[in-house]
Amino acid sequence: MKKISFILIALMVHGMLPAQFAGIQNNQEQPLPAGFKPASTNTFLSQYPAVNPDTRQATFRVVAPYAQNVTLQLGGKHAMTKDDKGVWWYTTDPLVVGFHYYAVMIDSVPVMDRGSEAYFGSNWESAGIEIPEGAEGDYYRFNKDIAHGEIRSLYHWSDINGLERHINVYVPAEYEKNPKKKYPVLYLVHGWGEDENGWSVQGHVANIMDGLIAAGKSVPMIIVMPSGDIKTNSDVRKASGDITDILIKDLVPYIDKTFRTYTDRDHRAMAGLSRGGAQTWNAVLNNMDKFAWMGGFSGSGRIGKNPFNPSASPTTVETAYNGVFKDAAAFNKKMKLLFISIGTAEGPGAKETYELLKNHGINNLVYHESQGTAHEWLTWRRALNDFAPRLFK
Amino acid sequence: MKKISFILIALMVHGMLPAQFAGIQNNQEQPLPAGFKPASTNTFLSQYPAVNPDTRQATFRVVAPYAQNVTLQLGGKHAMTKDDKGVWWYTTDPLVVGFHYYAVMIDSVPVMDRGSEAYFGSNWESAGIEIPEGAEGDYYRFNKDIAHGEIRSLYHWSDINGLERHINVYVPAEYEKNPKKKYPVLYLVHGWGEDENGWSVQGHVANIMDGLIAAGKSVPMIIVMPSGDIKTNSDVRKASGDITDILIKDLVPYIDKTFRTYTDRDHRAMAGLSRGGAQTWNAVLNNMDKFAWMGGFSGSGRIGKNPFNPSASPTTVETAYNGVFKDAAAFNKKMKLLFISIGTAEGPGAKETYELLKNHGINNLVYHESQGTAHEWLTWRRALNDFAPRLFK
């Protein structure tokens, strides 16, 4: 019996073995500098990139013996240095904690560092690196001592889109144990260039919600994470960011049919990050009969000038979104929460929106800041951790 | 309100924008040759690689203006040709239908083509391309006219491994509608270098099972897809392929506690592909009190010489696996199915095993061949499609 040999022969015939061995270029048996550990975002055998949790520095390693220039693209461009074995190295200054996409430019070609797992961002599979927080980051880490919900991966057919659409749905740990209980639903959308897996992979939504629910801080809820793109399968592919129609006519009815949900507006919320925040404002403020809670993380609605259409007349708080804010008292009666969050490194825009609305008499407003973080996943994990406990109470 | 501008500024500050625009190198607005369509395995905006479904040819496109040599690694090495814009091209001969990993070598550096989605293989994130079958491939495609099960993503704590372990679990469409019904369970393992997502992503397990169950060919069942590796998070990472202990002591009890399962051996099966097939033989044949059905797809047990330990005495059908086959009548009484499958391009090993066992008097044996396919996912989709209807009847 030479079964295993046949497998190896089959692999060689099919050209897989060279790639396999090349694949371990950042893998086991590579020594690490003192104090450094493999990043948690690496593939499981990869030693590099390596992170020093105390100094928050990261060391990158790229094997490219014939390249003239190798650059690390991570918060700017950094020239890597070649050693005498054709291996390129770069150690960063201390980085901001949290999750960062990065790319390696080899002679001007941006490539994904194969030491990293793939994280979908900028409309392609990207490398990423997590600079760990200490104990303050425990809320988004797996906690073996509490009950765990699930991320359910489903496809539903969309007549509007003409395609099956992939969604991820978080259900709380208790869901299967209470076969008659109904749950409120939060629709949670990713940002531009990412996809419906972003919140569960980069965002650690299950760990965050498991912790909040176990601690009694959040009401057990279902979280639906759809794609914020309308993907097409035509010969020339395009995407649109206008998901309101699919959301209202297609996704919400599908969820209410498939899961044990409360179907009234008081038990339905929506939030999103970056472009997903803008999508949330569009969808919710034009469908106030369906949602009573909303959040924008590092991205909210447009009041004033439209940066995508500068020639259009700027809106005001009275005219934006078909005048939904005009009668503040009426708005206050309907919307139970309007949550606006931003990283402090992102600029004053979110705070300006908040103050504009507050001064106009909108209440049930919450303004949340993530200290020291930018337009990145740590900002959004913190936003969700602050937002979710406020819902459905 | 300049919220959107702040987002763009934040992106630029954090070095994301150049990567974004570089990211669309294979994206929309690229013309396609007549008869070619974007591969279904591409990221959703990528035009290349493109496939001609009639000729089964694929055209690859790589932007690498300063490279000296660009090679496509797909069933051998193929030199790509540079055009006057610094873009490299290669069009294949007709390819075998099914899913193939591929790599692009840019001046000897293997990189993942960013036109492709990421598929975990060879222990890193790899590009892949699906060469579509015609109607005969419908069984693994999404069918909008039938009910759909779900893939549930869960983590469970393993004391043996000292880590949380990720599993995917297929539950049939009817599971939520029958809150008191119990189900049989198939444990289904991936091969070397892949991970617990392989069966649901590359293998399309949900589409295959949804179709078999809707057609009344398969009994509704739960399918548990664990990692076949024991991953460690130590400073120098290592993996082991011996999962029997974790499976028996940790995973099976966790599944029986978490899902509505039958817990007797008659309602528990295990199968795997390649190394996962070898793991199945190890686990099942040493734990016959727990499993009554088993399958090895392009990989089964070792009878005879051990290719990994050539100095060990070869086993015989009487001595292999602690002599479990020796008393054929006793084995036949216990094991309801021993399914052996292979692609015809993989060699005669699987058939030899089958004949060895058959001649020894083992029955309830099934030998299945996938015509014209090799050590790849189409072989394993076909194997599952033939295997699953035989279970739990």
TrEMBL record, chains A, B:
GO molecular function terms attached to this record: acyltransferase activity, transferring groups other than amino-acyl groups
InterPro entries referenced in this protein's UniProt entry, alphabetically: AB_hydrolase_fold, Esterase-like, Ig-like_fold, Ig_E-set, Mycobacterial_A85_antigen
Keywords: Signal
Signal sequence bounds: 1-22
Record Gene3D superfamilies: alpha/beta hydrolase (3.40.50.1820), Immunoglobulins (2.60.40.10)
Pfam families in the record: Esterase (PF00756)
Protein name: Esterase
